[in-house]
Amino acid sequence: MIDKSIIEETAEVLIKVNKVRAIEIVKNFINEGGNPLDLMEEGFIPGINATGDLFGRGKLFLPELIQAADIMKEVTDIINEALAGGSDIKKERGTIVVATVQGDVHDIGKCIVVSLMKANGFTVHDLGRDVATDKIIESALAVNADIIGTCALLTTTMPRQKDLEDALKSEGLKDRIKTVVGGAPVTPRWASRIGADGYAKNAQDGIVKIKEFLGIE
Amino acid sequence: MSKIITRMGDGFSVEMDEQELMQDIEDGVIDAAERAEIPVLSDDEQKHLLEICKSTCTISGVEKGYEVIMTYDGGSNKIGRLGINTGRLQVLQTYERCFGADTTELSDLDYSFKQAKHIVRENVPLMEQAQLLMVAPVFYGSMPNLGLYTQPDGPVLNPAELLPQGKIKEAREAYAEAIEHSVRDMVYVSSALYEAGADGINFDTVGASGDPDFKATLLAVQELKKKYPAMCVEIGMAGEFILGMHGEVTHNDVRLAGLYPHEQVKVAQEAGVDIFGPAINTDPTESIPWNIARAVTFTKACVEAAKIPIHANLGMGVGGLPLCYTPPIDAVSMASKAHLEITRLDGL
What we know:
Mean pLDDT of chain B: 95
Largest sheet of chain A: 5 strands, parallel
Low-confidence stretches of chain B: none
Number of strands of chain B: 9
Largest interface: A-B, 24 and 32 residues
Largest sheet of chain B: 5 strands, parallel
Shape of chain A: elongated
Number of helices of chain B: 12
Strand order of the largest sheet of chain A: 2-1-3-4-5
Number of domains of chain B: 1
Number of domains of chain A: 2
Strand content of chain A: 5-15%
Number of strands of chain A: 5
Oligomer: heterodimer
Strand content of chain B: 5-15%
CATH superfamily of the largest domain in chain A: Cobalamin-binding domain
Structural class of chain A: alpha/beta
Distance between the termini of chain A: 17 Å
Structural class of chain B: alpha/beta
Radius of gyration of chain A: 18 Å
Mean pLDDT of chain A: 86
Radius of gyration of chain B: 20 Å
CATH class of chain B: Alpha Beta
Helix content of chain B: 40-55%
Helix content of chain A: 55-70%
Number of helices of chain A: 10
CATH topology of the largest domain in chain A: Rossmann fold
CATH topology of chain B: TIM Barrel
Order of helices and strands of chain B: EEHHHHEHHEHHEHEEEHEHH
Shape of chain B: globular
Order of helices and strands of chain A: HHHHHEHEHEHEHEH
CATH architecture of the largest domain in chain A: 3-Layer(aba) Sandwich
């Protein structure tokens, strides 16, 4: 059981983007014999999730969110190094391919999703915006992705998410790769209608869905 | 308990009983109040909202005498989208004489001040002709659209590429440079159209590129009001809070990032804005009663904070209206009635 004050401080250093103190907390914790994975699970991951929630409410801003994600990356690297047997949090957590669908050039929301995914220790391949369905599938196969996440910000580009589902079905990949759809006009009803495995209301919800699919608590 | 047919935020019909409907209204009110730290609607107001949302009518309306001004943005582009072959002046007349618009707006298909500057001399004679044809005020409207000033669309380094590289200082400098370009274009285009007779200038979808976008608009408004004190300036917002793309932009010592409508309007009126249009985002996964309750709660606080007229944005995906191609009239009129009767705003 980690001391409550340490858990609270890990959230605080992320929200206040205090990288120096974040690294200090991790190193001290490891030097004192604590399990680094516990610190990640109980402290840093809830902390980065809290920063995502604050961003969604207009209480924290993009530069801070990106800096917090950068702190998470550094912290994850230190914890990976410290873990016995060379185990790696990222490798355990799964691989995700993310793209904004073809015809849609919106990028900001997807970048936030990618930042939070990386901060949560997933291996993320961001294909960018305006990405063709064929390229998404090709990239997912190349990196042996567990999940494909697509974003559509326009009612006119939502059908590309259905194209992806149809293509995965016709190529016999539907059971192998899970799909999560998101974007402002996207709803659970749409996800269900097109046959997507999951719907993410926002970046934070996306993390929850991905963890469910990958069996991570 | 009998079922009431209502809608979800994506426009689909759904059946709810009265208790579920009331619960959604209460939840929508609380969501807005918690986010913006504003008062919740009173019990009477929530009960009144329930009565509005229970309506089985195709169209809801207000009693005579409670009508408000209907002001339209981007109007001269919208008829063409329906495949109707007509010119922009005829569209303005259609809005005035068929749709009962109280103000209309001449605008360009490429709805951004940056693009408009290249064709401003084409728009000047059109505005002059519009003024001769129309009785209702004709505004010129466009978007600040700060993103167009960053690479690859413009000369400034792209903050969306700099931020992930950790180049926060450089990203903020890029925003500052983009603001300068944007203000220059907004003042140039607005001046030309105002001198051609425009009754006002509408800055639309303000804040779409976050806090620097809002800042650019406020600076342009200040400059224009100094130049033309009688100019009517309207601004319509892009979303319910100012996205902190920069995070530290201030105006008269007020940090712009994270401002909600009741705070946005104070900054806007201080800069010289005459009409303010809050835009409350619709959540397509929640019901229309939830979305209307939320929009009304935000807008009521905005109306109470304002010293200038409030013309709330009620359109696809904002103001409690469904996020779908053609928002159904039952939801549109229900949201409009709720805004008029509860927030006491001045226009839609």
